[in-house]
Specification:
The protein is α/β, with parallel strands linked by helices and about 230 residues long. It has a single domain, classed as Phosphoglycerate mutase-like (Rossmann fold), CATH 3.40.50.1240. The chain is built from six helices and six strands; from the N terminus they run βααβαβααβαββ. A six-stranded mixed beta sheet has the order 3-2-4-1-5-6. The radius of gyration is 20 Å and the shape is globular. The N and C termini lie far apart (about 80 Å). The N terminus is likely disordered. One of its GO terms (molecular function) is phosphatase activity. Pfam families: His_Phos_1 (PF00300). This is Histidine phosphatase family protein.
Length: about 230
């Protein structure tokens, strides 16, 4: 009698990918008032910014979008956006991560932009990538390295999960540049994610490759009134 082969069920296979959804916060008071703000100088969302976040929450709810983890930078504009989105994403808490903050402005954080420029001046990021923007602030290379490290840390920490992170335009743009190995700004081309926009990446741990799924998706804001 031939021997019957026995097939052993290996059980569920752990996914090797991370889905990383980067969300820019809604419109904030510091933008409207032209204030230089990274973290400490943040004045939170405007009414319009809350409306933009509400529109994205409605979209996520209609799509039945769920995430395993909801992250936010420590700036109020990002945290407020995350709290508005949280009920639609199926999470109980928002986990804050300071490494998701915008370029750190040190002693200039919270100054009107005209005062910031008068006090600390401006400089060419290409010519002086290691110069801090102001005392206790970051340089361009500091910021690039932080964003690159943060994205790779998220890919490792949340392997096999779907993660949403409410962050800032600078983080989204620099993430795009570092993952596509664009060496510097000033190439004559801009990428500029809108308020409450969605940018999505997928990271495959087996190949250590990133894949861009969508960038600056604002379909939920199509009928926004200003």
């Amino acid at each position: 009698m031939p021997l019957a082969s026995r097939v052993t069920d290996p059980g569920p296979i752990a996914s090797s990918t991370v889905q990383l959804i980067l969300i820019r916060h809604g419109e904030s008071h510091h933008t409207v008032r032209d204030i230089a703000s990274s973290e400490q100088g943040c004045l939170g969302l405007t009414d319009r910014g809350r409306g933009q976040a509400d529109a994205l929450r409605t979209r996520f709810a209609s799509e039945r979008r769920r995430v395993d983890v909801l992250l936010s930078s420590t700036a109020d504009r990002a945290r407020q956006t995350a709290e508005i989105l949280r009920p639609a994403l199926g999470t109980d808490t928002v986990v804050t991560d300071r490494d998701l903050c915008e370029l750190r402005l040190g002693r200039g954080d919270g100054l009107p932009r005209a005062d910031f420029e008068a006090r600390y001046g401006s400089f060419d990021l290409v010519a002086a990538p290691d110069r801090p923007v102001c005392p206790d602030g970051e340089s361009w290379n500091d910021f690039r390295n932080r964003v690159h490290t943060t994205l790779n840390t998220l890919a490792t920490t949340y392997r096999g999960k779907t993660v949403a992170a409410v962050t800032h335009a600078g983080v989204i743009v620099v993430g795009f540049m570092t993952l596509f190995a664009i060496p510097r700004p000033g190439t004559g081309t801009r990428i500029d994610p809108d308020f409450a926009s969605v940018t999505e990446w997928e990271h495959d741990d087996t190949t250590d490759n990133w894949r861009l799924i969508r960038f600056n998706d604002t379909a939920h804001l199509r009928y926004e009134t200003t």
